[in-house]
Amino acid sequence: MPGLQKHDVQLDPKYDDYDFPVDAPIPQNGHPGWTTAEQDAQVYQLRAMLEQDGYTEQLDTLTMVYPLSPIGQGETPAE
After folding, report:
1. pTM of the shown model
2. Of 1, 14, 62, 65, which has the maximum CB count within 10 A?
């Protein structure tokens, strides 16, 4: 996909304890390793809002990224 830049997923040790690769192997906007700085900020903000409301489970980065991805917003993945 034009314009997408691969980067390391910024993991938070408080939430993220994975024993598997976390970067999406295929470049797709909004997927781990292929997020924008704005999407990364949205993950942080969403997590903070959920914690403020008392949520304590499933606040890991991969779970937080999914709703921000195009597929999480109802788009069908490209074949």
Report:
1. 0.71
2. 65
